Amino acid sequence: MCSKDKLIVSIASVASIIAVFKNMITIYIKNMVCNRCVMVVEGLLRELGIEPLSVTLGEVVLASVPGEYKFAELKKALQAVGFELIDDRRSRLIEQVRNAIVELVHHRDADLKTNLSDYIAGRTHHDYGYISKLFSEIENTTIEKYFIAQKIERVKELLVYDEMNLNEIADRMGYSSAAHLSAQFKKVTGLTPSHFKQIKDKKRKPLDEV
User: 170 and 185 in contact (C-beta within 8 Å)?
Assistant: First the structure.
């Protein structure tokens, strides 16, 4: 292949890439809280003949906008397994915050000591003051309380596993001490960690209900 032909192929490739980016759409889905949710949504999309470019917690990127009928099918299929398409811009932003916190607490233990406000601002690309006010207005709780609630659910999970003692769990979850963890755990659940271990998963919640 001569240089001229290579150049033509290269230009054509760039043009096709630009076309893909131009037509890309991101759809936002409520109640995706774990890697299993990602797998379920990927499976639903492929069953409907929709090939996603990427699927992450709360977000699906598609190469193009599905037809109206296909979109209605997707909405129905998602609702059947407990998910929900989000159309409102403010609701999408709140779901981004929720998903960012779930990811931080349940999948990125090493980053738990990071500054929460900086983390949320970086993930949403919005001023934290604005995000915090919006979250409180829509969710009737603060970002900090939601963060603590998710941490307590993660602590419950680790207590049920029974592979670490309370000091190790406190360190892993970013608490200053086991006493600090115990105090916060009792404030949220009404139980001490040791009492919870006796009843175990009877008091655990699905993450989308936290």
Answer: no
Distance CA 182, CA 63 (A): 48
**Domain residue ranges of the chain, discontinuous segments joined by +:** 3-87, 91-209
> Which alpha helices (H) appear in the chain, and where do they start and end?
3-23, 35-47, 68-80, 89-107, 116-124, 128-139, 143-161, 166-172, 178-189, 193-199
pTM for this prediction: 0.70
* Continuous segment of H or E residues that includes residue 55: strand 52-56
Q: What is the CATH number of domain 91-209?
A: 1.10.10.60
For residue 60, the SS3 value is: strand
* Ramachandran sector of residue 141 (left: φ over 0; alpha: ψ -120 to 50; beta: rest): beta
Name the DSSP letter for residue 209. Answer: G
Across residues 118-146, what is the average pLDDT?
Answer: 94
Selected from 3.30.470.20, 3.90.1170.40, 3.10.310.40, 3.30.70.100, the CATH number assigned to the domain covering 3-87 reads: 3.30.70.100
Query: How far is residue 96 from each of residues 37, 84, 128, measured CA to CA in Å?
Result: 15, 14, 13
Which pair of structure tokens corresponds to residue 92? 């999408």
pLDDT tens for 176-199 read 999 999 999 999 999 999 889 887
Distances in whole angstroms, Cα of residue 55 to Cα of each of 3, 17, 29, 88: 38, 19, 10, 20
Residues sharing a CB contact under 8 Å with residue 66, sequence separation 6 or more, in sequence order: 50, 74
Q: How many CA atoms lie within 13 A of 53 on its CB side?
A: 14
